[in-house]
Amino acid sequence: MNWFAKLFYHYRRTLKAIRIFFIISGPGIIVMLADNDAGGITTYAATGAKYGYSLIWFLLLLLPIAYYVQEMTVRLGAVTKKGLAEAIFESFGSYWGWFALLDLMFVNWLTLVTEFIGMTSALSIFKIPPVVTVIAVCSFMGIMIVRGRYWTWEKIALLFCALNLVYIPCAFMVKPSVEIILHEGLIPHIPSGSMNEFFFILMANIGTTIAPWMVFFQQSSVVDKGLQEKDIIWGQMDTIIGAAFTVIVAIFIVIVTGTLLKGVEISSAEQAVAMLIKHNKYIGVFLAIGLFNAGLLGAICISLASSWAFGEVFGWAHSLNHKVKEAPWFYFFYFIILISSALVVLIPGAPLVTITLFVQVFAVTLLPAVLVFLMLLLNDEKVMGEYKNTLSQNIVTGSIVVAIIVLATLYSLSALFPNII
Amino acid sequence: MKKISKRFIDLFFSERLGHFINQQIEKIEEINRKYATPKVTLTPTKKWILLFLRFYVLFLLAILFYKFCTII
């Protein structure tokens, strides 16, 4: 009887833990899966097409990198109850505050344009004109944010996160050899070919894994959700599960293009989709749906990251739990960013390639600054109290931050001046 | 300077829009006052890091400006 009572007790405890996790999880999974946005899908598709399965080991390395950076935002948000923009203003003064805020707004706006490029390209495969896509997406995102509360928004976003897993069945459909994947993919090695191109692909993969908007978004999301210090452990679990999903999706995209398009130069995801349709209609269609979903998920998160950041600094009511009347500026700002970036895609002959190029560079101007601020804030006892970084956390995150800064800078320079490396 | 910018706005924008812009400028000034002094304890190491960051950002912006000019 005693044995049965203990078992029942553990069962109830586990059930309660799972229930708490499902209540608290969300920001980490959403931010990580939204990270596989239209630009991310392009990068992973190009990686698989160029090097086959050879870089799967490198994608696995991105899991701890993504986790350690994003985990800091969970602790900072839960302890300070402030978004990162407000925390930077408060801790480092208005000079750095304005720099971070304006750069974030600009990067986010440009990134949002690239998401719309991805969505319109994906649906153009089904002969849907860009103008219809833009109107449908803007209307949907408007209704999603205006009609619901944070919980509703999060649930819808999680549904799109689940759709992001569409690449997994695609990988099974191409019937790759598991033995070759394990042999080529899991043993770290440098594939033959140009070192410049190899280095560029590595940097592009890092660049898509850690983006400035993700850091701002997750912290604001943690604050809007109302996570407390005691919830940090659940927030960390949420983040690591999200990071695992991101890497899994990336690996499966690499498997698809690595199996069917190995040795082909790919410059855009829609090009990959068009080529895959020739191989297998269903895989191509799945990938097009996945690309549209990736763009939509990215757009849902990026547009909110900017509005949250501006609301924090300007002191506007800035929660999804507020109605439009209660937080007019928050919603106004959200729609301005959304509609203006959507309209760029509809301009005939708009310099979309140049925009994509500048996104990478502006992201790099902000990323090192954001990561340095995060590290400094997480090491300040006055701000973090007992939740400040430990020595081992500092060694790990410090090494990651230095590596990201160096590689992101090189990536940006090589994007601007292709022959520099 | 503040008066000049206010007169400039009054001169070129309609009354309502001018009032709105002036309100936003005041809001920005209020934010600058509110966050004038950094709250984080600035040790010499932190000061060096921020100085390095300042030069790094200026370097990237200069490169970006150069690229922008050459593209155009």
Give structural attributes.
heterodimer; A: 421 residues; mainly alpha; Amino acid/polyamine transporter I; 18 helices; 0% strand; B: 72 residues; 3 helices; 82% helix
Q: How would you sum up this structure, described in words?
A:
The complex is a heterodimer of chains A (421) and B (72). With 421 residues, chain A is mainly alpha-helical. Chain A has a single domain (35-416), classed as Amino acid/polyamine transporter I (Up-down Bundle), CATH 1.20.1740.10. Chain A contains 18 helices and no strands. In chain A, helix 4 crosses helix 11. The longest helix of chain A has 41 residues, at 84-124. The model of chain A has no long low-confidence stretch (mean pLDDT 86). Chain B contains three helices and no strands. In chain B, 82% of the residues lie in helices and 0% in strands. The radius of gyration of chain B is 19 Å and the shape is flat. The longest helix of chain B has 28 residues, at 44-71. The model of chain B has no long low-confidence stretch (mean pLDDT 79). Chain B starts with a helix and ends with a helix. With 72 residues, chain B is mostly helical. Chain B has two domains: 1-37; 38-72. The chains are: A mainly alpha (421), B mainly alpha (72). The interface between A and B is medium-sized, with 30 and 23 residues.
CATH fold label of chain A: Amino acid/polyamine transporter I
Tell me the count of domains of chain B.
2
Largest protein-protein interface: A-B, 30 and 23 residues
By DSSP, the count of extended strands of chain B is 0
- The assembly state of the depicted protein chains is heterodimer
- Assign the CATH architecture of chain A: Up-down Bundle
Cα Rg of chain B? 19 Å
Query: Structural class of the secondary elements of chain B?
Result: mainly alpha
Helix content of chain B: over 70%
- The gyration radius over C-alpha positions of chain A equals 21 Å
Quote the beta fraction of chain B: under 5%
- The helix content of chain A is over 70%
CATH class wording of chain A: Mainly Alpha
CATH homology-level superfamily of chain A: Amino acid/polyamine transporter I
Taking the sheet with the most strands of chain A, its summary is: none
Secondary-structure-based class of chain A equals mainly alpha
Main beta sheet of chain B: none
Percent of residues of chain A in beta strands?
A: under 5%
